[in-house]
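2024-03-11 09:14:02 DEBUG pipeline.ingest accepted 1 chain
2024-03-11 09:14:02 DEBUG pipeline.ingest length=714
2024-03-11 09:14:03 DEBUG pipeline.predict start
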Amino acid sequence: MKKIDFSSINTQVVNKRFIYIIGASLGTFAFIFNAFFVVNIVGDIPIYFGSAFVLLSLLALPFHVALLVLSASLAPLVIFDGASSIAWLHGVQFFAIALLLYVQIRFLTALLLFWLLIGLPIASMIVDSNLSLSYQISVFIALPFVLSGLISGMFAILVYWLLPVSSQFRQNPVLPKFSKVVLEFNLVSVMLPFFVVLLFLIWRSTHDSQISLSLELDNALEELNRSSTVLLDDKVHALTSTAALLLNEKNIQNHANILDTVANASADIESMIVTDEAGGILLAAPAQYAAKLPNLSQLNIAFRAYFQQTKERKIPIISEAIRGRGLGSLDIVAITAPILSERGFEGLVQAAIKIDRLVDQSVINAVQNSQIAVIVTDAMDSIIYSSPRLDLQKLDAFQKNQDDAANTFLLPKMIVSEKDYLYRSLLSPAGWKIYTLTEPRRIFKDTNMYFIFMIMIFVQSIILIAILSRGLASNIVRPLRNLEAFIKGKKLPDKLIAEAKVSQEMFLVTESVINAQKLTMDFQKELKKQVEEKTKELLSLNSELLRVSRTDSLTGLFNRGAFDTLAHEAYMYCRRNKKSFTLTLIDIDYFKNVNDTHGHNAGDQCLVNIANIIASMCRRDTDIVARYGGEEFVLFFASDKPGEHIEHIKSIAQTVSEHVISHNDCDIQLTVSCGVVRVENDFSKEMIELISLADQQLYLSKDQGRNQVNSISI
């Protein structure tokens, strides 16, 4: 009965439970970090570092356990923060790196490939779609995502490297080269602190830049507010003084002169009027304007809101912008001052001020030269002034398209003419709204230059580290490769010792390997010598066996079996290449009489002599000569000139007939009959058919009286 090893089962259960416990721990840490340790680098955009535990689980735990850790890390992003797009990016990172690891790409390489080729474009699109910024700014804002991903991955790989090599959590399906390990270690040692510092500097520089830009916008606002307030106060003071003069001047006829003098004294004033307490127009100035209004007594402005406000509040009032009023078709703002006596409100003085004159152009130019755009609106949000690059029309209603959902910056953001602007605003004492705007890219102007400088230093550092790592790895690996080459017999011991002095341990190992290799080599040489001797004997025996198996023992020619093999190969070659060849059967005439008359020894001697004659006359490498059986010989000639074969065979037959064989003081003279088949055109027949045709020609030679050569050509 087979025993069950309960100890191994318990070990497997414990290991499986331990893996799930580690997975649960990593998932808990990932959840806590993503829920409570969120870092905002640029504005309110969150950076999550819980992915470090996810990537560590991907390196050290089974895939299904790593999926559970991933789920735990993404839960706070979706449930608490509503950052589903960022959660989606972290999920893509997990599966992309898992796929790259599956195809045997190193983790650090996979991490860099993902964030440079996939992560940065995706993060930029997420920022662009959520914040409606230019792509350049979106890429910069997405950069902290990339840096946080790289930092998390490098933290994971550092922890993974700290695990013992024999740990069950060290999953290395393919062992890396030592040079790659050294390079990765050096790169991570440099890149991890560099990326942390760079992330901090991005946060600090963008934060300081926004503070500086906010102060710049606020200062511009204050200067614009001051200048516009001074302008309006001057106009209000002039009207108040005019109202006082008119009230104190008892001569009604002088009122027109006073009004005309004031209107002509200021280029900012398009026109002026004086009304009674009911809003009827009493006087108008300057003269050219008054000429346009011949029936003053019929005109009344009581319906105007600014008239009602002046009458009710008894204070100077600045109206909203009025389109196309006054002399010509100029846009104006009406400023009124009440005429007050002891009896109360007796009318007002109104001045129509050209809109262009309501802003101090020198202040506007100074602000705009600082890359700041300006918008000034009245209390009803009608545009009094806007910078030309904003492409807004005067007196159009200004709608502040503020993107309240985008909390990327410390400054509020609005969209004007389909472009993003950061802005500051205030309400002037006159009830006007003043906006100062600037493009978001100004936040990153100095940061971009600083970032490019840092990247240049980083690239140079990486190149230097790669060179140094390669040199260090080479110094460490070269003795190991030398040992490998020495064991393979490709390196001499002297060179080994010279390059092994990297460390004491390497030198001792090299020395021990050389001594062990020397003993091994001596043993192998002795063993090789013995094997070579035995092999030589076996080869000699095999060669002799092969020769005996293929050679006729009496004549020394090939036997029939050897001929069948060799002739078949030669025939197939000729057949494939359509090369002509000749097959010949030779039979000794009246050979039985020799055996009967002189004995078998004499017959054997005759066979040997005739075989020697045939062999001596067929010396080409392609000639195949064999004893086919008894007193028969067979020849196979391959040549492009088959016509010469017949003459050659006839010369063989003649030589045999002229040869005298001496045996026991007796001279024996023999002849041969030959049957020849020449194959020149028809290569369809098999070898056995060709033998049959040659045999027929041989018997024909016998029938014709022997010592004949008969042939057929096909």
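2024-03-11 09:14:41 DEBUG pipeline.report Residues 1-14 have pLDDT under 50 and may be disordered.
2024-03-11 09:14:41 DEBUG pipeline.predict end
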